[in-house]
Amino acid sequence: MKHNIIFTLFAAYVLSSCASSNKSTIDAKLDHKVDSVLKLMTLDEKIGQMVLYTSDWDITGPTLKSDYLDDIRKGNCGNIFNAHTAAYTRKLQKIAVEESRLGIPLLFGYDVIHGHKTIFPISLGESASWDIAAIEKSARVSAIEAAASGINWTFAPMCDISVEPRWGRVSEGAGEDPYLGSKIAAARVHGFQGNDLADSLTILSCVKHFAAYGAPLAGRDYNTVDMSQRVFLDIYLPPYKAAIDAGAMSVMTSFNEYDGVPATGSKYLLTDLLRDQLGFKGFVVTDYTSINEIVNHGVVSNEADAGLMAIKAGVDMDMQGEVYFKYLKKQVEDGEIPQKTINDAVKRILRVKFMLGLFDDPYKYCNEAREKRLIYAPEHLEAALDVAKKSMVLLKNDSNVLPLKKGEKIAIIGELATSTRDLLGSWKAAGDWDFMKSTLDELKTYNGEANVLFAEGCKKFGEDRSGFAAAIAVANRADKIVMVIGEDWEWSGEAASRTSINIPGVQTELLEKLKALNKPIVLVLMNGRPLDLSKENELADAILETWYAGTMGGKAITQVLFGEYNPSGKLTMTFPRNLGQVPIFYYEKNTGRPLYLENPKYKSRYIDSPNDPLFPFGFGLSYTTFAYSDIKLSTNELTEKGEIKASVNVTNTGGVAGEEVVQCYVRDLVGSVTRPVKQLKGFEKIALKAGESKVITFTIKPEMLAFHRLDMSYGTEPGDFKLFIGGNSRDVKEVGFKL
Ligand code: GLC
To answer: Annotated catalytic, 287?
Structure first.
């Protein structure tokens, strides 16, 4: 076996290094180890560490380089993504460790966004659970299964705030709110990275897509992002910051431009803001060929200059672009880039590889027996079922059509009822759907074959109405109709923007025909974005939003429909009445002519639609009901160093136990710049038995009221505030206080 100098060197070093306790000593030792590797490296090998190629096991972008094994062998590629299983990653790691000159171990990255093999609901669905512990658990399970399959780096959490339902990637995020998005981003980093990156069941997280990728004009993916710096810093930045503060050790640049500069070449974003202001200590990787795409943006005229712009901006690793591989060496030799710049980039990458423990044991993630034991472990499937149920949002339930009663004869209509692939949604990583049971199968298992009739009726998209008659005939034989409708899983995710947010094809037309039967109709939605449900809301008696609920989605839908679990989800993105209202979000500004003015005409309104959305941010029903009373403040004066305790009494006024997400919003009535009419500042998900009451208290501190003021300084301003508490952003009780 090729004698590997690096391990000899390290074996000695590691043995000599005594265990040390304090952080600065650990950091110093880490830096010493990194420096001792760096000094052994040629410029080619340094640049090799700045290269990331996809394997041919999964393609997540426009290009593929087939000879990546040779690149690893030559030390020209130090990192691989889209490769998994313990066996295959072992094979590639072996080439790196035993056949390259220095044997530096590989990073193995993968888009473990909402699960690896056990797939959880898409992230937008998970966010609707408002259950931070459950979301962290989801990331933890995902990390365990990914790590067991040879992966040590996930390209998650996606922290892009968005108010654009046309944009397909809202499915990967946590919705429109910076406060909730920040809590979720931090939870995901904790879930992925655990307390110790050296643990062989934790993996490196990657904050993406930096930055403001979620605000493409017209919702068209990769399109221009154009926003004020204040909106960026106050609304879009917080979740990225929260993930970094939670300890994320890699950041991925975004495809879009920000303020006229491609993010992948933006020194403001990647150095001034990310490193200097936010104190990020990890490494920066690009998105797929996004260095090359700087040429398309039109700020450079060739790839060599694109590489120069990226390295000067602060990009450490080139995903799939081959730009660093082709041009960096000559640019260093010609003095266009100081050697130190390369050294700093490589040190940041090596540091993370040391933190992962890869130099101590490069095969620590490549244990096939452990993989077999951990993949689809019962507790993982149980966790996926739990999160799936908690992510579902009951949008309508007239006359308590839901929950269904066991033994009722129900007609299941819709292609999505039989689909398992759609349940996994986009970015399904290594999830496989043959393993799963469809929603229809689960309904039959639960309610008995004889009580569950089925007709497809129509496809997820297209104009074929030939199945309508059979669907109507089947529905006629049932007590209740359950239509499973929505979007094909490929209609959201990357490169999947839509100019319509209606239910596709003729699904709603079939719903109209079924409505004529005068039987209760329940809609089960499967979709990756907020939809315009105005028509469906008129036609259906009940609507359950299930997103793409993952490996256990069919069972979760069944248990919610039959009341085994009382739905508790709340929307994290506003559902508009129509696309014409978009962008529409709860933290809007009051404007100079707000709707409540007396004048019937001259005010901020539409002549053909109300202003308010169909379903507001934070909205979700339950099989029980909740009442809010006695909203109180500990004081009406918040001093600079003080705090206010805001409390409210919540009662379960219905007949069954249920969970409620109690939400606390604040409004700054007068600022040096205009302020949103509401901003989420706290929430608590509580469980109450029928008839039970509980007092919920939120603590409001001055720093929670800070924002970027007229002069762009960050801080608070004295004045009058309103505080709102309720079960969504619309139906709230309010009180006032002063700062
Ligand atoms: C894609 C996505 C990014 C993903 C990367 C690797 O283009 O934009 O989210 O992590 O490529 O698959």
So the answer is: yes
Check residue 476 and give its pLDDT: 98
pLDDT higher than threshold 50 for residue 2: no
pLDDT at residue 6 in the model = 55
CB atoms within 10 A of CB 342: 24
Ligand 1 atom 12, closest CA: 60
Catalytic residue among 131, 177, 287, 488: 287
User: Of 493, 436, 619, nearest to 168 (Cα)?
Assistant: 493
Specify whether 33 is located in the same domain as 64.
no
User: Domain range holding 325?
Assistant: 2-43+81-88+109-370
Confidence label for 17 from pLDDT (cuts 50, 70 and 90): low
Q: Which of 54, 80, 155 has most ligand 1 atoms within 8 Å of its beta carbon, as the pocket-test mutant?
A: 155
According to DSSP, the residues that pair with 736 across neighbouring strands are 722
Confidence band of 59 (pLDDT split at 50, 70, 90)? confident
* C-alpha torsion angle, residues 487, 490, 493, 496 (rounded to 10): -90
β-pair partners for 250: 283
d(CA 310, CA 290): 10
Phi, psi of 671 (to 5 degrees): -135, 170
CATH number of the domain encompassing residue 539: 3.40.50.1700
Average pLDDT, the chain: 96
Q: 384: part of which helix (H) or strand (E)?
A: helix 378-391
What's at 331, amino acid-wise?
Q
Q: pLDDT tens across 479-500, in order?
A: 999 999 999 999 999 999 999 9
Cα–Cα separations (whole angstroms), residue 599 to 596, 605, 609, 612, 613: 9, 11, 17, 18, 22
DSSP 225: B
What integer pLDDT is reported at residue 16 of this predicted model?
47
On whether both 575 and 686 belong to a single domain, the answer is no
Q: How far apart are CA 484 and CA 498, in angstroms?
A: 21
The number of the ligand 1 atom at minimal distance from the alpha carbon of 58 is 12
56 and 122 inside one domain: no
Distance 319 CA to ligand 1 centre (A): 9
